């Protein structure tokens, strides 16, 4: 599904942030991406999200080389990928329902077609009662669950999460990762970046550990 | 299993780009001002052109025979002959000699009241109305008048030429001003659009992350700018029409005195008419479309630079 071959990344003329990354992510897998701050986790996620191009090496997704895709090709590929951020990035003027429905709206689907799906998903993530609330009225956990719902509503094949529990307390963090695990059981490939050791120890998923730009896999 | 949840009815989906923002209000205000200026300029051009056409047409329908007093000639007899010659000319509707008193009155604006003109030999005039300025045989009349000593024919051609040149210059100047206003509006829209895009950068980024194409994002912003353009255009257009209505009322209310008469002579009723108002109304969709197109191009450029 995802294959990196000798991928390197540097910003401008600076030092290489990611060095010689060569790995393969199988469909339906769940990986934690971890490492100390500044080790390049976010840069690797940006490569996976196709919002950055590697300075060397090749990235294949769904058996297609994505390093030289044009704007339309990138866009089509990006629709296979969902993303959850630490800071949620919900649009403040939209309700929870509208935020979650946004990816389907972008695809041009009419509201009548997706309304029940969005409601069902909001109930599944425990936000059925909060669907008309704006983000300002949601708690941190509710915001993150809304962000997860938005990331998966269009049924992406890959779900990336960048420190999704960074702003949440430990109990809520565990419940959220459980939610990711449930999504994984439905077939979604998940890469979850975190540096919270307690969280890593609570689940037996393989770890991708980044240190000084080099990646090591631990099963 | 989750318990059934009572949900309220779904409100209308909010637009992806928020309706109210400081940049949007500023842009609407700016477009209103630009539309007002465009409307006033366009109305002014229409007014000048209409007045010039009406004045030129009035002046063109009349020629004047002037008979200078010459010793040994009988003025009244010459006047009658001039009237008769004029009436026999093809294309002439009527000819009338101005009385001595009327002729003296014509001099009052220059010589003032209270001057006894009875001792002064003044030229006398015959006002000739043409039924059709195109078919009137002015050359024949000019030729016939050579039989009257001291008679000359004034067709006002020089005045009309001067008037048309002046009106044309005002119209061209007005159109030039209109073009400058359009350019200034386009530039202002570009700056305002970039400001709005910067303000809404988070929305753009999120839309990119969830797989929205630049075309989709540009369309969302274009729709917002089209509405802003329409609102601003309608406010500015209505203000321009109101301006001409008020000026027309003002010009009408001062119609009793000399000022009103001069206004009336120069600008008619100072009314732009339905066609002028329609012209100003047509500015509104033009400005709205211009806003939408300019902002779309700016947004696409912004997106291609940032994505």
List keywords for this structure.
heterodimer, A: 219 residues, alpha/beta, Rossmann fold, six-stranded mixed sheet, four-stranded antiparallel sheet, 7 helices, B: 307 residues, alpha+beta, 2 domains, 9 helices, 4 strands, 7% strand
Class from helix and strand fractions of chain B: alpha+beta
Total helical segments of chain B: 9
Proportion of beta-strand residues of chain A: 25-35%
Name the pair of protein chains with the most residues at their interface, and give those residue counts. Answer: A-B, 31 and 24 residues
Residue stretches of chain B low in confidence (pLDDT < 50, at least 5 long) are 1-6
Strand runs of chain A, count: 10
Question: Globular, elongated, flat, extended or rod-shaped: what is the shape of chain B?
Answer: rod-shaped
H/E topology pattern of chain A: EEEHEEHEHHHEHEHEE
Terminus-to-terminus distance of chain A: 18 Å
CATH superfamily of the largest domain in chain A: P-loop containing nucleotide triphosphate hydrolases
Query: Which strand order spans the largest sheet of chain B, edge to edge or round the barrel?
Result: 2-3-1-4
The average pLDDT value of chain B, as a whole number, equals 81
Concise synopsis of the structure shown:
The complex is a heterodimer of chains A (219) and B (307). By secondary structure, chain A is an alpha/beta fold.
Q: In words, what does this structure look like?
A:
The complex is a heterodimer of chains A (219) and B (307). The model of chain A has no long low-confidence stretch (mean pLDDT 91). Chain A has two domains: 1-80 and 156-219, P-loop containing nucleotide triphosphate hydrolases (Rossmann fold), CATH 3.40.50; 90-154, no CATH class. The radius of gyration of chain A is 17 Å and the shape is globular. Chain A has helices at residues 41-48, 71-78, 96-106, 111-124, 140-152, 170-185, 197-202, and strands spanning 2-10, 16-25, 30-34, 56-61, 64-65, 81-84, 158-162, 189-193, 207-211, 214-218. In chain A, helix 3 (96-106) runs parallel beside helix 5 and helix 5 (140-152) packs parallel to helix 6. Chain A is an alpha/beta fold and 219 residues long. Helix content of chain A is 35%, strand content 26%. Chain B has 307 residues and is α+β, with helices and mostly antiparallel strands. Chain B has two domains: 22-57 and 160-306, no CATH class; 69-149, no CATH class. Chain B has a four-stranded antiparallel sheet. The longest helix of chain B has 43 residues, at 157-199. The two termini of chain B are 43 Å apart. Residues 1-6 of chain B have low confidence and may be disordered. Chains A and B meet through helix 2, helix 3 and helix 4 of A and helix 6 of B.
């Amino acid at each position: 599904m995802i294959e990196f071959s000798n991928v390197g990344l540097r910003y401008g003329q600076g030092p290489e942030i990611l060095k010689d990354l060569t790995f393969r992510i199988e469909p339906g897998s769940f990986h934690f991406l971890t490492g100390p701050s500044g080790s390049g986790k976010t840069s690797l996620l940006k490569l996976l999200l196709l919002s950055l191009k590697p300075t060397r090496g090749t990235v294949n997704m769904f058996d297609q080389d994505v390093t030289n895709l044009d704007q339309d090709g990138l866009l089509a590929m990006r629709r296979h990928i969902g993303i959850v951020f630490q800071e949620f990035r919900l649009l403040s003027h939209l309700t929870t329902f509208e935020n979650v429905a946004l990816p389907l709206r972008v695809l041009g689907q009419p509201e009548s077609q997706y309304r029940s799906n969005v409601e069902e998903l909001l109930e599944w993530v425990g936000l059925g009662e909060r669907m008309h609330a704006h983000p300002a009225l949601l708690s941190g956990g509710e915001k993150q669950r809304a962000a997860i719902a938005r990331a998966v509503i269009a049924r992406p094949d890959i779900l990336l999460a960048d420190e999704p529990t960074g702003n949440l307390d430990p109990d809520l963090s565990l419940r959220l990762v459980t939610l990711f695990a449930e999504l994984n059981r439905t077939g979604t490939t998940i890469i979850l970046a975190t540096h919270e050791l307690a969280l890593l120890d609570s689940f037996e998923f393989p770890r991708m550990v980044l240190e000084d730009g080099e990646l090591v896999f631990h099963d | 299993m989750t318990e059934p949840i009572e949900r309220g009815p779904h409100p209308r989906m909010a637009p992806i780009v928020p309706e109210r923002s400081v940049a949007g209000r500023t842009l609407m205000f700016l477009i209103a001002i630009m539309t007002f200026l465009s409307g006033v300029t366009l109305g002014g051009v229409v007014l000048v052109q209409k007045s010039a056409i009406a004045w030129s047409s009035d002046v063109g329908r009349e020629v004047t025979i002037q008979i200078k007093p010459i010793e040994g000639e009988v003025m009244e007899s010459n006047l009658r002959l001039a009237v008769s010659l004029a009436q026999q000319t093809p294309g002439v509707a009527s000819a009338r000699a101005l009385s001595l008193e009327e002729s003296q009155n014509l001099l009052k604006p220059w010589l003032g009241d209270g001057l006894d003109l009875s001792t002064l030999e003044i030229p006398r005039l015959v006002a000739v109305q043409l039924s059709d300025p195109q078919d009137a045989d002015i050359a024949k009349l000019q030729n016939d008048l050579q039989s009257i000593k001291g008679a000359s024919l004034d067709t006002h051609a020089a005045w009309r030429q001067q008037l048309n040149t002046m009106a044309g210059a005002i119209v061209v100047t007005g159109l030039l001003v209109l073009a400058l206003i359009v350019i200034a509006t386009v530039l202002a829209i570009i700056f305002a659009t970039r400001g709005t895009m910067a303000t809404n950068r988070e929305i753009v980024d999120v839309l990119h992350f969830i797989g929205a194409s630049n075309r989709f994002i540009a369309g969302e912003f274009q729709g917002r700018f089209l509405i802003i353009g329409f609102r601003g255009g309608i406010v500015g257009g209505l203000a321009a029409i109101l301006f001409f209505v008020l000026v027309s009322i003002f010009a009408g209310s001062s119609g009793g005195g000399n000022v009103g008469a001069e206004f009336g002579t120069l600008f008619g009723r100072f009314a732009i008419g339905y066609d002028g108002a329609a012209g100003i109304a047509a500015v509104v969709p033009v400005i709205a479309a211009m806003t939408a197109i300019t902002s779309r191009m700016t947004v696409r450029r912004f997106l291609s630079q940032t994505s």
